[in-house]
Amino acid sequence: MSRRGGGNHSENRRSQPSPAHSQQSSVNAAGSGRGSGGRGSRGGRTAGPPPSYAPAPVTSPPSVAAVRPSVAAPVASSSSAPISIESLTAEVQQKVTLESAPSSQKAVRFPNRPGYGQLGRKIQVRANHFQLRVGDKDLHHYDVSISPEITSKKVCREIINQLVKMYKESQLDNRIPAYDGSKSLYTAGPLPFTSKVFVVNLTDENRGSSSDSERKKRDREFKVTIKFATKPDLYHLTQFLRRLQLDCPYNTIQALDIALRATSSEKYIVAGRSFFSPSLGQPGPLGGGTEYYRGFYQSIRPTQMGLSLNIDVSSRAFYEPILVTEFVRKHFNLNFSRALSDQDRLKIRKVLRGVKVRLSHSGKIRSCKVAGLSREPLKDLTFTLEDNANRKKVIDYFHEKYNIVLKYPLLPALQAGTDSRPTYFPMELCQIEPGQRYSKRLNEEQVTALLKATCQRPPQRESDIKHIVMQHRFNADNVAKEFGINVREELALVDARVLPPPTLKYCGTGSESKIDPRMGAWNMINKKMVDAGKVQFWTCVCFSQRMDPTQFCDQLVNMCQSRGMRFNPDPLVPIFPGNPNQIEKELVELNKRCKETLVRTKQEGRLQLLIIILPDFKGRSYDKIKRVCETELGIISQCCQPKQAIKMNKQYLENLSLKINVKCGGRNTVLNDAFEKRIALVSDRPTIIFGADVTHPQPGEDSSPSIAAVVASMDWPWVTKYRGIVSAQNHREEIIQDLYKTIVHPQKGVQFGGMIRELILAFHKSTRLKPARIIFYRDGVSEGQFSQVLLYEMDAIRKACNSIEEGYLPPVTFVVVQKRHHTRLFPLNERETDRSGNIMPGTVVDTSICHPREFDFYLNSHAGIQGTSRPTHYHVLFDENRFTADQLQSFTNNLCYTYARCTRSVSIVPPAYYAHLLAFRARYYISEVENSDSGSASGNRNATNVAPTPILPSVLDNIKDVMFYC
Fold it and tell me: How far apart are CA 233 and CA 201, in angstroms?
């Protein structure tokens, strides 16, 4: 997220520091880190305009031979542990943490900004950040406990609101507190007690009955204890604002954030940091019994301009408030004229469990939460009467008591209550209560409908954001006024720069061998791939019934040849149609035929490429093809959609040729600066670029593992080829567990392994060099996990390097790549936009809305296509290579032009993009049983329900060697 600031660089190289370096390190070690605690007051720079900053001059790099490390080549394994393995962990912790920080605080301190970038054309943009001013207040923090315990934040807020109404004047000194719905309450000044117990009566208005017995049930009594909490990070706000440029006291920001969210939390549906309601915009259908609500995201951020309020429009899927029978019909497309199968019943149970429904057949409204479904259909379902002796059919009960003839006796009933004391209700009498978030996986049609409905061009999005701020009148809000918060209602005007695009190198010499992209795109007219692959043995199988693949294959082969590939025009075995219902069998048989042909014709080799026309129908055929080809048969495959293949569009064929070339070991293009060895802090010494990501299962998939993927460049100094490794780990575990690991072998002793070690060894095998620098782009980390991920993964990188050779510790730069944030940048005028109306590719921001002290920046490296472009946020958590702002920003932007699958720059740096693709590819390898019905899984996440982490099938060695995931 947006965190940044000025200051001196705080991290030193692993090599022996000079006295000046040692002194700097000791100065910058002061302060505390992000998390429950704040930061120290030293080592940063006060806010203000960016200083004039001259980047370090880039000298001509030495020749490749001159930078070969003198360290001995790495060995595959070792039977004895390296010296001081424990000291590596201590060394990493010492570098990034404070020994003096309280144990209650997260003590990680990230590098100071090394300066501000100067490269590029200076422009101004608007950002959806609104500057906050805070008054002269003294914040106090109180712990709240409610008895009996309540898990619903909504009910907790109702209790505290009632408490304030009852006791504001008599006990609370007329203060309006800000409450987070859980355990924390903040006030702008002290309460007249340190601890006090209040009695609060809350009336539950959900039930509609006038009887005395029902009224007693509606009146609930709670005891609320409010106790003064220690306040290690709460300050008089004027002191806090002075400190903001040096550190970011988390608790103070949290208190102000809760105060500014208090009123919206009462009025709207809360989902994380976003609010939704039909009153914020007309809901729209998504299909399958779901609809979308419009809303807005809100968060307070520490920035260089002080505190800012980040506001963005947002949309989310909700259940339609319709009858359950209608929902089931829409969602599952079932026929109610026959009894449901056990499989269908389980699907319905999973998607409805936990959903609140409303019944009104008795003349009064009653709400309950669905706990499950009956095993029997309604026509066979009975229950025990109050005499505990006789049983009665549910159908007969509703007919006799309410004169209701049920229309769908073959459907099961909804079950409320517990398994020991269930209550059953017919689906056709239950209506889904409005305002319930749909947390299951959206299908392809729903995703498309949501994107179409919420896609907004920049002017419209900017206008809607302004409307949200004006509509909510934050400055007139009672809680905001109590805390002295004032929101400036204009979008922040931010200084930005447009970085120049890199020159790209293609095959040959002269003008036709280079190209300068314009607006983030280019074409390959008269260009050949810089390192074309060779395809000798290939064939095609067509699972589509709508096309003859022969002409398509001829056109594709011609395109590959025109781009420089050596591509045999004749397939190894004749192109043939395949049965789309027996994909695995067809692939195995095809592989067998190819091997027999090679033996019969006395040719050495194997099938290098299999072109596959996918089936016409939607399904899991792509997943199965990739799993079989890559983990069982060892075949590189290129899948093609029949609706695209039948058109034989030239651009489509060219994109396929780009994918095929890298899958066959080639390179499409390289940076001209890499070709001429003049990339700062990359070209001068052997450098390995890592990309890492962890993808988690969709909400509700409780038995599926998280998938970690790591890729690394294998072709220094070109940095375009990436080898990848995947690993399954515990459900929703964010830290990558297999970066480094040791295994004790009964005979061989301690064996070292892990992703980092394997990729460094592969780099050495490919280049005959050992990496002298590491640049690690880590995707998928939220701000609250920065400290934890950095400490664990840097420790793993250190140990993996040291396991290759004792003392081998190349300097590391660790950069987090974030796309899931809500900062948007809007152009000031149409002359500074791309064709979509978005800011231009190469736009970078490292001022105003960025962190007050730390090294981060927003980079919009791509040209928009539709909607509003989302810049990627890069945050440096560790930097021993001592990059300047210009060096890292320019290198990151230039890498975005080397993505192998298209002739466009992409929105995130390719190593992180490849890791993301690879992690998703690996999810296809998990058995179809585990993946089936994942979108209908229960939303419960109890640890007891989580299945053991499955072992991913291994990708075969010949597949690993190329970029098969492209």
Answer: 34
CA distances from 537 to 598, 613, 798 (A): 9, 18, 42
DSSP E strands, 28-128: 121-127
Instruction: Name the nearest CA neighbour of 156 among 437, 148, 253.
Output: 148
In a 3-state reduction of DSSP, which class is residue 535? strand
Q: Are 506 and 530 in contact (CB under 8 A)?
A: yes
End-to-end CA gap in the chain: 28
CA proximity to 668, closest of 507, 556, 529, 562: 529
Q: How far apart are CA 69 and CA 15, in angstroms?
A: 14
Secondary element (H or E) of residue 910: helix 910-923
Residue of 566, 567, 577, 568 whose CA lies nearest to 540 = 577
**CB-count exposure of residue 114 (10 Å: 0-12, 13-18, 19+):** buried
CA 27 to chain centre: 35
* Cis amide leading into 232 (omega within 30): no
- For 649, list phi and psi in degrees, rounded to 5: -65, 140
Least confident of 8-17, 635-644, 703-712, 834-843: 8-17
Strand partners, 611: 540, 638
Angle at 430 between CA 425 and CA 434, to 5 degrees: 140
CA 815 to chain centre: 15
What pTM was estimated for this model as a whole? 0.87
Pairing of strands 372-377, 566-567: unpaired
Cα separation, 611 vs 557, whole angstroms: 11
Q: Which of 661, 623, 639, 710 is nearest to 916 (CA)?
A: 710
C-alpha 425, offset from chain centre:
40
Structure confidence by residue, pLDDT tens digits, 673-717: 999 999 999 999 999 999 999 999 887 677 789 999 999 999 999
Distance CA 552, CA 547 (A): 9
CB burial of 476-499 (b: ≥16 within 10 Å; e: otherwise) equals: ebebbbbbbbebbeebbebebbbb
| DSSP string computed for 628-662 | HIIIII---EEEE-HHHHTTT-HHHHHHHHHHHHH
Give the pLDDT score at 852: 92
State the Cα–Cα distance between residues 53 and 50, nearest whole angstrom.
8
**Coil, strand, or helix at residue 461?**
helix
Q: What are phi and psi of 613, to 5 degrees?
A: -90, 120
Residue with token string 């008591």: 401
CA atoms of 24 and 28, how far apart (whole Å): 6
Which tens digits make up the pLDDT trace of 907-934? 999 999 999 999 999 999 985 435 444 3
92 and 802 in contact (C-beta within 8 Å)?
Answer: no
Token pair of 148 as six digits? 């009996």
Work out the number of other CB atoms within 10 angstroms of the CB of residue 846.
29
For residues 460, 466, 471, 477, the Cα torsion angle rounded to the nearest 10 degrees is: 150
The overall longest dimension of the chain from CA atoms, in Å, is 97
Interval 238-250: pLDDT, tens: 666 666 655 667 7
CA nearest to 639, candidates 653, 625, 619: 625
Question: Coil, helix or strand for 335?
Answer: coil
